[in-house]
């Protein structure tokens, strides 16, 4: 009785997973295609790539894009409007008395440092680090440490 129950459960479980025809490849299995069609994954690209593309388009590009127009008002009432058009930055300053000054500047791209790291650069950095480390050991640190800066802040609630 016990073996027949185990056998019938095994046949029931494994019988549902079998293809409707023996010797059928997974791409021709209609049951498998109904659950997981294979054509959609290759036609639409990978899920991670779609997710990355949508994130770049919807979140990253708007966040990193330079604002087209920004307006700032100073305490004295001067209004400074900065507008980016192509390769130019146009700054318009309006004084409280109505005087308008417009200045146009080209957009300056930061140059990338593609120079290779040489042994001399490494040696210079090593020397600067060890000179500062020696000064720290002697107690002659020129700038206060982060701990000293935190200790000098006012404490609220005491």
Instruction: Determine the strand fraction and express it as a percent band.
Output: 15-25%
Shape: extended
Question: If strands are numbered along the chain, what order do they take across the biggest sheet?
Answer: 1-2-3-4
Determine the fraction of residues in helical runs and give it as a percent range.
Answer: 40-55%
Q: Structural class given helices, strands, pairing?
A: alpha+beta
SSE order: HHHHEEEEHH
Based on CA atoms alone, the radius of gyration comes out at 34 Å
For the terminal residues, how far apart are their CA atoms? 79 Å
Please tell me about this protein's structure.
With 158 residues, the chain is an alpha+beta fold. It has a domain at 67-106. Helices cover 47% and strands 16% of the residues. A four-stranded antiparallel β-sheet has the order 1-2-3-4, with no helix packed on it. Strand 2 and strand 3 (88-94) form a beta hairpin. The chain is extended. The mean pLDDT is 78.
Topology readout:
Elements: H1 2-17, H2 30-35, H3 38-44, H4 47-64, E1 69-73, E2 79-85, E3 88-94, E4 100-106, H5 119-138, H6 146-152
Antiparallel strand pairs: 1-2, 2-3, 3-4
């Amino acid at each position: 009785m016990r073996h027949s129950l185990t056998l019938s459960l095994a046949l029931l479980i494994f019988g549902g997973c079998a293809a409707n025809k023996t010797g059928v490849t997974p791409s021709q299995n209609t049951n498998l295609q109904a659950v997981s069609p294979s054509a959609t994954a290759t036609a639409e690209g990978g899920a991670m790539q779609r997710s990355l593309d949508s994130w770049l388009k919807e979140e990253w590009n708007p966040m990193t894009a330079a604002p087209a127009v920004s307006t700032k008002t100073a305490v004295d009432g001067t209004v400074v409007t900065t507008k980016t058009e192509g390769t130019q930055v146009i700054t318009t300053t309006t004084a409280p008395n109505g005087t308008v000054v417009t200045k146009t500047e080209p957009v300056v791209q930061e140059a990338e440092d593609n120079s290779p790291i040489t042994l001399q650069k490494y040696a210079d950095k090593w020397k600067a680090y060890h000179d500062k480390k020696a000064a720290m050991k002697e107690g002659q640190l020129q700038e206060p440490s982060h701990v000293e800066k935190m200790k000098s802040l006012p404490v609220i609630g005491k």
